[in-house]
Amino acid sequence: MTAHPAVPASLPAFQTQAEQPQARMKQALAQLDSVILGKAGPVRLALACLLAGGHLLIEDVPGVGKTTLAYALAATLGLEFGRVQFTSDLMPADLLGVSIYERESGAFRFHPGPIFTQLLLADELNRATPRTQSALLEAMEERQVSVDGATRPLPAPFFVVATQNPASNHGTFPLPEAQLDRFLLTVTLGYPDPRAERELLLSGGRREAAQGLSALLTPAQLQAARQGAAAVHVSGPLVDYVQLLVGATRDSAAFVTGLSPRAGLGLIASARAWAWLDGRASVWPDDVRAVFPALATHRLLGRSSGTPQPEAVRALLEGVPIP
């Protein structure tokens, strides 16, 4: 059992400032759980990812609710939603937009693509060619796109929720490491348990339920929630623990490369969001442990296989002592 540090004396003030966004977020979690049945852990990780300002990658076999989760997140958080079905013939202009000459005005006019939205579902991302995949890089990192020599900002907030099929599936193009590193967390939904699957079978699926959800937050409330999560206290010993974990990935012979400093920053941001969802004003080691596999697995490729190794990541996590 992990020993938790004492909560700072400023907790009551923190709760007062964050009370409304946290109450809204608890309602959001409950609503999401009512649609994505039996997957409370992945749903909470997805919400923590968006709270931390990151992008989410959902990897699983077809038909387990990846797209439904993206729909439900957008509806619950009150975000403008856009979807792009990635295929091998999708071109960057189909995603970013294109300038078209208009005879009436005698000038080119930019027609924005579907990326100009607040929550973009990049469905089956690894079915597109590397050229089209790379069109997302600037958008995910800089929240802007460059088209025809002009830089255009994306709506705020801007989140990418991408789904991908397992690499063993026919017609996939593996995401390069630079692309994978743009995703803060990866979640896997997996097959539902028997009780949840029975409810799905009786209800006829959850896609329509997701599309009919009520928005529980405004963009301003979501921004307040993100600010609250970013303000969660991180102690010196907690930073020591994060450094030990990151250093262990670099020293391990199991992985091609270790976690980058950007991944370490993402680990702290994700742990802050996880703690904030619990209504706490400081990060505990258990928060880091809760988000570490989702942050590290898609970044740490096995030295022998060149593919993610979830079991090796879990073993590393268990092997690093908490200071």
Key terms:
disordered N terminus; Helicase, Ruva Protein, domain 3; alpha/beta; 323 residues; 2 domains; Rossmann fold; 5-stranded parallel beta sheet
Structure description:
With 323 residues, the chain is an alpha/beta fold. It has 2 domains: 23-217, Rossmann fold, CATH 3.40.50.300; 232-323, Magnesium chelatase subunit I, C-Terminal domain (Helicase, Ruva Protein, domain 3, Orthogonal Bundle). The chain is built from 13 helices and 9 strands. The chain has helices spanning 11-35, 40-51, 66-77, 92-96, 130-142, 177-180, 194-203, 207-211, 219-230, 236-251, 261-277, 285-296, 310-319; strands at residues 56-59, 81-85, 97-102, 107-112, 119-123, 144-147, 150-153, 159-164, 185-187. The strands form 3 sheets. Strands 2-5-8-1-9 form a 5-stranded parallel β-sheet. It has a two-stranded antiparallel ribbon with strand order 3-4. The longest helix has 25 residues, at 11-35. The radius of gyration is 20 Å and the shape is globular. The two termini are 14 Å apart. 38% of the residues are buried. Residues 1-18 have low confidence and may be disordered.
CATH architecture descriptor name of the largest domain = 3-Layer(aba) Sandwich
Radius of gyration: 20 Å
Helix/strand order, N-terminal first: HHEHEHEEEHEEEHEHHHHHHH
Summarize the amount of helix as a percent range. Answer: 40-55%
Number of strands: 9
Number of domains: 2
Task: Give the neighbour order of strands across the main sheet.
Answer: 2-5-8-1-9
Sum up the overall morphology in one term.
Answer: globular
CATH class of the largest domain: Alpha Beta
In the predicted model, the low-confidence regions spanning at least 5 consecutive residues are 1-18
Structural class: alpha/beta
Q: Could you give me the name of the CATH homologous superfamily of the largest domain? A: P-loop containing nucleotide triphosphate hydrolases
What proportion strand?
A: 5-15%
CATH topology of the largest domain: Rossmann fold
